[in-house]
Amino acid sequence: MDIETPPLFRSAQDKFRWDGVAHMPYKQDGSAPFRDISRQVLFHEDALGCELRYFEMDAAGYSTLERHEHMHAVMILRGHGECLLGEQVIAVKPHDLVTIPAWTWHQFRASAGEPMGFLCMVNVQRDRPQLPTEAELAAMKRNPEVAHFLES
Ligand code: MN
After folding, report:
1. Which long-range contacts (CB under 8 A, 24 or more apart) does 87-91 make?
2. CB-CB neighbours of 133 under 10 Å
3. Where are the domains of the chain?
4. Tens digits of residue pLDDT in 54-81
5. Which residues contact 70 (CB under 8 A, 6 or more apart)?
6. 53 CA distance to ligand 1 centroid (A)?
7. Could you tell me which of 105, 97, 152, 100 has the C-alpha nearest to residue 130?
8. What tens digit of pLDDT does each residue of 16-57 get?
9. pTM for this predicted structure
10. 120 an active-site residue?
């Protein structure tokens, strides 16, 4: 199958997989700034200028703490956890909607007890994420709620 032009209909499989969608598992090593998170690109549509991806973390897994010029539009699909959004830590549950504006530090963490998965819409053309410097991380941790999130 041509990855660039998938069929118009692709059936859902069990366990948040889809026909014809490559499952990109963890590529973590000791230095990876994320843990136990997989990625599937559900749609890559140049005509729309966007991609829709599905990310899934194992229990206690987390996404990369990062920021960038492009924004994200997120819907939680399964599980529970927390989202760091700038200075806020937000408890999230299935079907919650999260808008991540440009240049806002963000990270998702699954709760200890269950996997968490979310849809994430993003521009096809986008800048590379920035990771925090030690100084930026220290500044974030001056907010006790953020510090608790980052150290959990
Ligand atoms: Mn991001």
Report:
1. 87/143, 87/146, 88/145, 89/145, 89/146, 89/148, 89/149
2. 9
3. 32-151
4. 999 999 999 999 999 999 999 999 999 9
5. 102, 122, 123, 126, 127
6. 12
7. 105
8. 999 999 999 876 666 667 888 999 999 999 999 999 999 999
9. 0.92
10. yes
The alpha carbon of 63 and the centre of ligand 1 are apart by a number of angstroms equal to 9
**In sequence order, which residues have a C-beta less than 8 Å from that of residue 117 and are 6 or more positions away?**
16, 54, 55, 56, 57, 76, 77, 78, 79
pLDDT given at position 5 = 84
Q: Of 3.40.50.150, 3.40.50.970, 2.60.120.10, 2.30.110.10, which CATH number belongs to 32-151?
A: 2.60.120.10
Q: Model confidence over 107-141: pLDDT tens digits?
A: 999 999 999 999 999 999 999 999 999 999 999 99
Out of 65, 76, 120, 146, which one is annotated catalytic?
Answer: 120
Both tokens assigned to 152: 């959990």
